[in-house]
Amino acid sequence: MTCLLFGVVSVSHYLVVGAILFTCGVICMALKRNALGVLMGIELVLNGANINFVAFGSEYLAGDGESVLGLDGEVMALFVILLAAAEAAVALAITLNFYNNHATVDVDRADDLHG
Amino acid sequence: MTAAQLFPILLGIAWLIPLASFVAILFFGNRMGDHGKGAATVATSAIGVSFFLSLITFFAWVMAGHEVSSPHHDDSHASVHRTYNDTEQSVQAVVFRSPEHGDAGGSHASGHGEAVVPASYSGDWYTLYESGTLRLSIGWYIDSITVLMFVVVTFIATCIHFYAAGYMHDELHDVTDSEVRLATGEPLHREGRFPRFFQALSLFCFSMLGIVIAGNLAMVFIFWELVGICSWFLIGFYFERHSASTAANKAFIVNRVGDFGMLIGLMALWGGLGTLQFGDSVSSATGQVEPGLFELVRPAENHHEQQVPDGLVAFAAADQIEKMVAANPSSGELSREVAAAVPDWREQGYGRWLLFVAGLGIFCGCVGKSAQVPLFVWLPDAMEGPTPVSALVHSATMVAAGVYLVGRFFPVLTPDVLLVIAYTGGLTLFIAATIAVTATDIKRVLAYSTVSQLGYMMLALGVGGWVAGLFHLITHAFFKSLLFLCSGSVIHACHTNDMRKMGGLLKVMPYTGWTMLIGCLAIIGAGVPFVLGFSGYYSKDAILAQALLFSRTNPQHSILYLAVAGGAFITAFYMFRLWFMTFAGSPRDQHVFEHAHESPRVMTAPLVALAIFAVAAGWALPGGLGVESLLEQARPAGTAETITTAGILGSITLPAEHESHSGAIHVTATLTAFLTALSGVLLAAAMYLKPLISPVAVAHAARPIYTFLVHRWYVDELYNRIFVLPTLGLARFVAAIDTQLIDRFINSLAWIARQIATVDAWFDRVIVDGIVNVAGSVTWKAGLELKRIQTGNLRQYVMFIVVGTVAIFVLATLLFRTSFAG
User: Looking at chain A, which terminus has fewer C-beta neighbours within 10 angstroms, N or C?
Assistant: First the structure.
């Protein structure tokens, strides 16, 4: 196995970028107190996953000119984007309402449903 | 409209009007005027209209000229009725069979000799049930007794209705019954029951008229029972009084005993003959004339002589028929063979017992209704009812029903049955008369005199005096209702039944006193011998003459004549004892005397009306218009001759009734009657009017007999010992079985079940509930613990997710290393 820093750009590199994005997103979700920040973290997580899909679906990166998955990766990525858009719309609406009720978007304050 | 169509319609309406009155009072009684005062008007006018219609029928009957000698000629309405002249051939054959009877009769017996078949009309209004040969219907059988009884019943009932409207006025407002004590010791206070009384009275009249008009035995039985239930209503009118409710139950139960015998008789007839119709009827199925009971028992081709009907013979000879079937099983002509063999079997005596049982069974019912020995105990107790009820029960309805049925059923009764009837009647008249001598309750004296007179009627019928018995039934109805209404008037005035507190009442109650004297004279048969007399004179003479003739022809049964003659003496004694104690002499109880007053006119008017009939009911008016000659028109076919039969109870000669009118017998009987009655009255006068003989001394001298009579021959005590106590003992025994055995068994079963249930309950509570509770509490506690993780902090959740995901990833990597690596 060759070193990633010096080898030809391949799927693995993309996976690394995706993993970093995912990790950043998760950390962002876990640490941000601002609800909008948390939403951004979610976007990062989703996009990290998207990079993985696109990478696996690309026939150029596969090396042998033949895609493992064909167009399936891109299609899945499009689905995820769509999903993210929808999720953002709903989540922003929730946030807005939360602001209306509590005059803040601090998720730590949103513990009305604790056990 | 012909007579045949007219009579059923008139009498049918007269019969149904009281029913309409009953229904009207039943539903609207309380709305009829103040406290139902209008009910009396409704009931009285209903029975009055019935009386009016009966009277029209009566005159129509007389005008139609139903000569004894010529049976009615009218068969224009052949589909519903058939008079006996359809069998004209056979009538002609018998007409001259015994011509010697024609001149035996005397002046009032015109044309007796040719009297063979009574003029009668029979038919059906409505068929209740019909299947095969089985047929039950509501129909009529009308002859001159029916018409006469209709007039008598409705007339007396009308008088009693008027009287009751006055007598029962207490019931118009709330009543305080001092004879009933409540648990608190206060007298009972209740609402008046005026409409209820007249309602029951109407139903009573309807039922009695139903018996009189009935065209078949089944219908008689229906109305028989209706009369029974009406008497129960009326005797128990003051049902809060223990004595009244007991008396009502007693009357009802004792009558059931008799009716049981009647049912047996009905079954014997039905089983053998398949019909209960009195007269001939037209079958709706075949259109043929079917013979009724009378025709079957006394067929025209047998000259109306009594014989065991074919049906009963074949019914009794079932063993012979079986033999016949066994001998020749393939024969298709069994019925013809049986028919051919029936005369032989009849000769051998098959079916004779069956006819005897049938007659005896029917008579059993009459014993109950007409209060004969041994079932007479209910009648004196029935005095607990209001006095108008007693008058009605004792004269025109109820007790008359039994005698009437014996008279109606007379052609079917065999000489053996008649002998039983005669002895029952003789015993009854003697026992009841002796009891009446010591009774001190004015109504009880009359009650026992009724029983005694009913005994006379039964005896008369039993010795072949068909006309005499029914004649006495009718005359007795008038004077006995009169006597009862008079006694009611006395009770109304004195507020006591006890004759020992009365005396001298004639001064304050002239109407009651004089009319009651007429009643007493009528019942003892007073009259100037051979010239003129009260109604009882004629009927009692007829009975005495017939009894004398019977004992002459059957010397072994001459005790019957002694009973009649002795009974006449005792009757005269106790009736005048009653009258002297009540009306003559000086007051025994000044308090009662001072409060006594004559009754209102609504009560005395019926007395006068009835008194007129008590005097005149026996007179034979010119033109054959008299009760006796009218009754003669209805004499059952074939009973006008002297017949000697070798019956089950030995050889019996039933003498022809006309012969009792012949010189020697008639004179002896009349003189006997006159002398016995006179001596009875004189003895009563000597004891109670002029104290020549002290009653107390007599009672003291004959103490055992006196005690015996005061205790009414110990009959009630005897029945109490024989029937009531054993029944109660049996009931207690059965109750003991019930409580000791059955209840114990059930209780122990229940105890076991309870124990099992206790164990089961413990199991349920501890084990089943325990498991469920543990499951519940574990879940509850788990929930409480898990609740803490649910902080509501979003970031924490994300951390959980991350950590979880990583943990799963690490685990998966560690566990499934090979597959990932591969």
Answer: N
Q: Name which of B780, B788, B791, B794 to mutate to probe chain A: the one with the most chain A Cβ atoms within 10 A of its Cβ.
A: B794
Going B552 to B558 to B560 to B562, the CA torsion angle's sign is positive
Chain B CB contacts of A42 under 8 Å are none
- B207: how many CB neighbours lie within 10 A of its CB? 27
What residues of A are in the B interface, CB distance below 8 Å? 26, 29-33, 38, 107-108, 110-115
Q: Are B688 and B581 in contact (CB under 8 A)?
A: yes
Q: Which of B313, B317, B284, B283 lies closest to B296 in space, CA to CA?
A: B313
Per-residue pLDDT tens over the stretch B588-626: 888 888 888 888 888 889 899 999 999 988 888 776 678
Contacts of A77 (CB under 8 A, 6+ apart): A50, A53, A54, A57
SS3 B674: helix
What pLDDT is recorded for position B117? 75
Contacts of B791 in chain A (CB under 8 A): 111, 114-115
Rounded distance between C-alpha atoms, residue A98 and residue A111, angstroms: 12
Residue A108: its chain B contacts at CB < 8 A? 793-795
**Torsion angle (degrees, nearest 10) of CA B36, B40, B43, B45:** -130
Q: Which pLDDT score, from 0 to 100, does residue B111 have?
A: 37
Residue B790 has what pLDDT? 82
Q: Which of B786, B790, B798 sits opposite A114 (nearest CB)?
A: B790
Nearest to A30 among B789, B792, B795 (CB): B795
Ranges of residues in chain B with a pLDDT under 50 are: 69-115, 820-822
Domain ranges of chain A: 12-104
Interface contact flag, A115 B799, Cβ < 8 Å: no
Strand partners, B650: B647
Helix (H) and strand (E) counts in chain A: 4, 0
Quick: pLDDT tens for A26-38.
Answer: 889 888 888 899 8
Residue segments in chain A with a per-residue pLDDT below the cut of 70: 1-2, 61-70, 115
Predicted pLDDT at A3: 75
Predicted ipTM beyond 0.95? no
Domain ranges of chain B: 715-789
What residues 752-791 of chain B have any CB closer than 8 A to a CB of chain A?
786-791
Residues of A in contact with B789 (CB under 8 A): 115
Instruction: Find out whether B15 and B51 touch, Cβ atoms under 8 Å.
Output: no
Q: Cite the DSSP H helix spans in A32-64.
A: 35-57, 59-62
Sequence letter at residue B730: L
Q: How far apart are CA B692 and CA B580, in angstroms?
A: 14
Judged by a CB distance cut-off of 8 A, whether residue B794 touches chain A is yes
Whether B795 sits inside 8 A of A108 (CB atoms) is yes
The 10s digit of each residue's pLDDT in B140-189 is 999 889 999 999 999 999 999 998 988 888 888 888 887 888 888 888 88
The angle, 0 to 180 degrees and rounded to 10, between the axes of the packed helices B194-213 and B217-235 is 160
Instruction: Provide, as residue numbers in chain A, all residues whose Cβ is less than 8 Å from the Cβ of B802.
Output: 26, 30
**What is the rounded CA–CA span in Å between residue B136 and residue B124?**
10
In this structure, what DSSP letter does residue A63 have? S
How many other C-beta atoms can be found within 10 angstroms of the C-beta atom of residue A113?
8
Residue of B nearest to A106 (CA): B794
Give the tens place of pLDDT for each residue, B732-773: 999 999 999 999 999 999 999 999 999 999 999 999 999 999
- Best of A24, A28, A29, A113 to disrupt the B interface (most B CBs within 10 Å) is A29
Nearest to A107 among B788, B795, B799 (CB): B795
Percentage of residues of chain A with pLDDT beyond 70 = 89
Reply yes or no on domain A12-104 having CATH 2.20.70.10. Answer: no
Of A31, A33, A112, the CB nearest to B792: A112
